[in-house]
Amino acid sequence: MRFCSLFLLLSYFLNANGFHLALSASSTRPQFIAATNSPHSPTFSAATNHPLPPTYIARATSLNSVALTTSCFIVGSILGGCTGTPLVIKATKSWYNNIDLPAFTPPDAIFAPVWTVLYASMGLSASRIYLEYSFNLPLKLFTSHYILNLLWAPLFFGLKKIRLAHCLNYLLLSTLALTIKCFYSLNKLSSLLLLPYLIWLLFATRLNSKICEMNPTKNGYNNAMLEAGLIKLQNDARQRAGL
Fold first, then answer.
1. Cβ neighbours, 10 Å, residue 184
2. Fewer CB within 10 Å, N or C, the chain?
3. One domain for residues 43 and 116
4. Full domain range(s) for residue 96
Protein backbone atom coordinates (compact mmCIF):
# COMPACT_ATOMS: atom_id res chain seq x y z
CA MET A 1 0.00 0.00 0.00
CA ARG A 2 2.83 2.39 0.80
CA PHE A 3 4.39 1.70 -2.58
CA CYS A 4 1.11 2.36 -4.36
CA SER A 5 0.67 5.65 -2.53
CA LEU A 6 4.18 6.78 -3.45
CA PHE A 7 3.62 5.67 -7.03
CA LEU A 8 0.43 7.70 -7.30
CA LEU A 9 2.11 10.78 -5.86
CA LEU A 10 5.08 10.45 -8.21
CA SER A 11 2.79 9.98 -11.19
CA TYR A 12 1.02 13.22 -10.36
CA PHE A 13 4.26 15.16 -10.43
CA LEU A 14 5.42 13.49 -13.63
CA ASN A 15 2.47 14.55 -15.72
CA ALA A 16 -0.74 16.48 -15.30
CA ASN A 17 -2.66 13.36 -16.35
CA GLY A 18 -0.30 10.93 -14.66
CA PHE A 19 -2.37 10.71 -11.50
CA HIS A 20 -5.46 9.64 -13.40
CA LEU A 21 -3.52 7.02 -15.33
CA ALA A 22 -2.01 5.59 -12.17
CA LEU A 23 -5.34 5.57 -10.42
CA SER A 24 -6.91 3.75 -13.33
CA ALA A 25 -4.12 1.19 -13.39
CA SER A 26 -4.00 0.66 -9.60
CA SER A 27 -7.76 0.21 -9.30
CA THR A 28 -7.70 -2.93 -11.47
CA ARG A 29 -6.56 -6.38 -10.47
CA PRO A 30 -2.78 -6.90 -10.98
CA GLN A 31 -2.20 -8.46 -14.37
CA PHE A 32 0.90 -9.97 -15.92
CA ILE A 33 1.44 -9.74 -19.66
CA ALA A 34 2.41 -12.94 -21.40
CA ALA A 35 5.02 -12.43 -24.12
CA THR A 36 4.31 -13.59 -27.66
CA ASN A 37 6.63 -13.92 -30.61
CA SER A 38 4.19 -12.59 -33.18
CA PRO A 39 3.77 -8.81 -33.43
CA HIS A 40 0.19 -9.40 -34.57
CA SER A 41 -0.78 -11.61 -31.63
CA PRO A 42 -3.04 -10.03 -28.99
CA THR A 43 -1.59 -9.42 -25.53
CA PHE A 44 -3.21 -11.65 -22.89
CA SER A 45 -3.51 -11.35 -19.14
CA ALA A 46 -2.03 -14.32 -17.32
CA ALA A 47 -4.53 -13.76 -14.50
CA THR A 48 -7.72 -13.92 -16.59
CA ASN A 49 -6.48 -15.39 -19.91
CA HIS A 50 -8.35 -12.60 -21.71
CA PRO A 51 -6.86 -10.06 -24.12
CA LEU A 52 -5.85 -6.81 -22.43
CA PRO A 53 -7.70 -3.72 -23.67
CA PRO A 54 -5.64 -1.58 -26.08
CA THR A 55 -6.30 1.45 -23.87
CA TYR A 56 -4.69 -0.34 -20.89
CA ILE A 57 -1.56 -1.10 -22.91
CA ALA A 58 -1.46 2.46 -24.27
CA ARG A 59 -1.76 3.89 -20.77
CA ALA A 60 1.05 1.71 -19.43
CA THR A 61 3.29 2.63 -22.38
CA SER A 62 2.49 6.32 -21.96
CA LEU A 63 3.23 6.22 -18.25
CA ASN A 64 6.58 4.49 -18.84
CA SER A 65 7.48 7.07 -21.49
CA VAL A 66 6.62 9.95 -19.15
CA ALA A 67 8.66 8.43 -16.32
CA LEU A 68 11.69 7.89 -18.59
CA THR A 69 11.57 11.40 -20.04
CA THR A 70 11.17 12.98 -16.61
CA SER A 71 14.04 10.93 -15.18
CA CYS A 72 16.31 11.98 -18.06
CA PHE A 73 15.53 15.64 -17.48
CA ILE A 74 16.12 15.42 -13.73
CA VAL A 75 19.32 13.38 -13.92
CA GLY A 76 20.63 15.47 -16.82
CA SER A 77 19.99 18.70 -14.93
CA ILE A 78 21.81 17.43 -11.84
CA LEU A 79 24.76 16.07 -13.82
CA GLY A 80 25.06 19.35 -15.71
CA GLY A 81 25.17 21.22 -12.43
CA CYS A 82 27.99 18.96 -11.25
CA THR A 83 30.33 20.21 -13.99
CA GLY A 84 31.42 23.13 -11.82
CA THR A 85 31.78 21.08 -8.64
CA PRO A 86 35.58 20.48 -8.95
CA LEU A 87 36.15 24.23 -9.20
CA VAL A 88 33.93 24.89 -6.18
CA ILE A 89 35.66 22.23 -4.06
CA LYS A 90 39.11 23.50 -5.02
CA ALA A 91 38.18 27.10 -4.18
CA THR A 92 36.50 26.34 -0.86
CA LYS A 93 39.57 24.38 0.21
CA SER A 94 41.92 27.22 -0.68
CA TRP A 95 41.29 30.92 -1.33
CA TYR A 96 37.50 31.24 -0.82
CA ASN A 97 37.56 31.03 2.98
CA ASN A 98 40.57 33.37 3.13
CA ILE A 99 38.79 36.37 1.59
CA ASP A 100 36.40 38.60 3.51
CA LEU A 101 32.97 36.99 3.67
CA PRO A 102 29.73 38.38 5.12
CA ALA A 103 28.36 36.97 8.36
CA PHE A 104 25.38 35.38 6.60
CA THR A 105 27.58 33.19 4.36
CA PRO A 106 26.24 29.61 4.59
CA PRO A 107 28.55 26.74 5.57
CA ASP A 108 30.29 25.08 2.63
CA ALA A 109 28.45 21.81 3.30
CA ILE A 110 25.09 23.48 2.56
CA PHE A 111 25.73 24.22 -1.11
CA ALA A 112 25.90 20.66 -2.50
CA PRO A 113 22.55 19.37 -1.14
CA VAL A 114 20.76 22.64 -1.87
CA TRP A 115 21.90 22.77 -5.48
CA THR A 116 21.13 19.08 -5.99
CA VAL A 117 17.51 19.66 -4.94
CA LEU A 118 17.28 22.84 -7.02
CA TYR A 119 18.69 21.22 -10.17
CA ALA A 120 16.29 18.30 -9.71
CA SER A 121 13.32 20.67 -9.43
CA MET A 122 14.54 22.56 -12.50
CA GLY A 123 14.73 19.32 -14.47
CA LEU A 124 11.26 18.25 -13.34
CA SER A 125 9.83 21.65 -14.22
CA ALA A 126 11.36 21.57 -17.72
CA SER A 127 10.24 17.98 -18.31
CA ARG A 128 6.60 18.87 -17.73
CA ILE A 129 6.78 21.61 -20.36
CA TYR A 130 8.56 19.32 -22.80
CA LEU A 131 6.01 16.52 -22.37
CA GLU A 132 3.11 18.86 -23.11
CA TYR A 133 4.58 21.27 -25.65
CA SER A 134 7.83 19.71 -26.85
CA PHE A 135 10.85 22.02 -27.27
CA ASN A 136 8.94 25.31 -27.52
CA LEU A 137 10.10 28.91 -27.06
CA PRO A 138 9.73 29.03 -23.23
CA LEU A 139 11.76 25.82 -22.94
CA LYS A 140 14.44 27.32 -25.19
CA LEU A 141 14.50 30.33 -22.85
CA PHE A 142 14.91 27.97 -19.89
CA THR A 143 17.76 26.17 -21.68
CA SER A 144 19.55 29.48 -22.27
CA HIS A 145 19.12 30.34 -18.60
CA TYR A 146 20.44 26.92 -17.59
CA ILE A 147 23.58 27.40 -19.69
CA LEU A 148 24.16 30.79 -18.05
CA ASN A 149 23.74 29.13 -14.69
CA LEU A 150 26.49 26.63 -15.51
CA LEU A 151 28.85 29.48 -16.45
CA TRP A 152 28.63 31.11 -13.02
CA ALA A 153 30.83 28.65 -11.09
CA PRO A 154 33.75 28.76 -13.59
CA LEU A 155 33.50 32.54 -13.61
CA PHE A 156 33.42 33.01 -9.81
CA PHE A 157 35.38 30.05 -8.46
CA GLY A 158 37.56 29.29 -11.47
CA LEU A 159 38.58 32.70 -12.85
CA LYS A 160 37.92 34.59 -9.59
CA LYS A 161 35.98 37.21 -11.57
CA ILE A 162 33.67 37.93 -8.66
CA ARG A 163 32.35 41.24 -10.00
CA LEU A 164 31.61 39.79 -13.44
CA ALA A 165 29.90 36.84 -11.75
CA HIS A 166 27.78 39.33 -9.82
CA CYS A 167 26.66 40.91 -13.10
CA LEU A 168 25.79 37.44 -14.36
CA ASN A 169 23.57 36.99 -11.30
CA TYR A 170 21.31 39.83 -12.46
CA LEU A 171 21.10 38.30 -15.92
CA LEU A 172 20.13 35.00 -14.32
CA LEU A 173 17.44 36.67 -12.25
CA SER A 174 15.90 38.44 -15.23
CA THR A 175 15.87 35.35 -17.46
CA LEU A 176 14.52 33.19 -14.64
CA ALA A 177 11.70 35.63 -13.89
CA LEU A 178 10.75 35.63 -17.58
CA THR A 179 10.93 31.82 -17.70
CA ILE A 180 8.65 31.48 -14.66
CA LYS A 181 6.14 33.85 -16.25
CA CYS A 182 6.15 31.87 -19.52
CA PHE A 183 5.89 28.54 -17.71
CA TYR A 184 2.98 29.80 -15.60
CA SER A 185 0.88 30.41 -18.70
CA LEU A 186 1.54 26.84 -19.86
CA ASN A 187 1.78 24.76 -16.69
CA LYS A 188 1.36 26.31 -13.25
CA LEU A 189 3.12 23.51 -11.40
CA SER A 190 6.17 23.89 -13.63
CA SER A 191 6.44 27.55 -12.68
CA LEU A 192 5.92 26.80 -8.97
CA LEU A 193 8.73 24.25 -9.07
CA LEU A 194 11.13 27.08 -10.01
CA LEU A 195 10.19 29.32 -7.07
CA PRO A 196 12.66 27.73 -4.58
CA TYR A 197 15.40 28.27 -7.15
CA LEU A 198 14.34 31.91 -7.55
CA ILE A 199 14.49 32.44 -3.77
CA TRP A 200 17.94 30.87 -3.56
CA LEU A 201 19.16 32.90 -6.55
CA LEU A 202 18.02 36.11 -4.85
CA PHE A 203 19.98 35.11 -1.75
CA ALA A 204 23.03 34.16 -3.84
CA THR A 205 22.90 37.51 -5.63
CA ARG A 206 22.85 39.34 -2.30
CA LEU A 207 25.74 37.21 -1.05
CA ASN A 208 27.75 37.85 -4.22
CA SER A 209 27.04 41.58 -3.94
CA LYS A 210 28.33 41.69 -0.37
CA ILE A 211 31.45 39.72 -1.30
CA CYS A 212 32.18 42.21 -4.09
CA GLU A 213 31.70 45.05 -1.63
CA MET A 214 34.08 43.51 0.91
CA ASN A 215 36.61 42.47 -1.75
CA PRO A 216 36.61 45.29 -4.32
CA THR A 217 38.07 44.76 -7.77
CA LYS A 218 40.64 47.37 -8.85
CA ASN A 219 42.24 47.35 -12.29
CA GLY A 220 40.91 43.85 -12.88
CA TYR A 221 42.46 42.51 -9.67
CA ASN A 222 40.76 41.52 -6.42
CA ASN A 223 41.41 39.86 -3.08
CA ALA A 224 40.32 36.46 -4.39
CA MET A 225 43.06 36.55 -7.02
CA LEU A 226 45.55 37.71 -4.38
CA GLU A 227 44.73 34.89 -1.98
CA ALA A 228 44.81 32.31 -4.78
CA GLY A 229 48.19 33.67 -5.92
CA LEU A 230 49.63 33.53 -2.38
CA ILE A 231 48.50 29.93 -1.94
CA LYS A 232 50.06 29.00 -5.26
CA LEU A 233 53.37 30.61 -4.22
CA GLN A 234 53.28 28.74 -0.91
CA ASN A 235 52.66 25.43 -2.64
CA ASP A 236 55.47 26.11 -5.14
CA ALA A 237 57.80 26.96 -2.28
CA ARG A 238 56.93 23.74 -0.45
CA GLN A 239 57.59 21.70 -3.56
CA ARG A 240 60.98 23.32 -4.10
CA ALA A 241 61.88 22.79 -0.46
CA GLY A 242 60.82 19.17 -0.70
CA LEU A 243 58.17 19.53 1.98
1. 15
2. N
3. no
4. 72-241
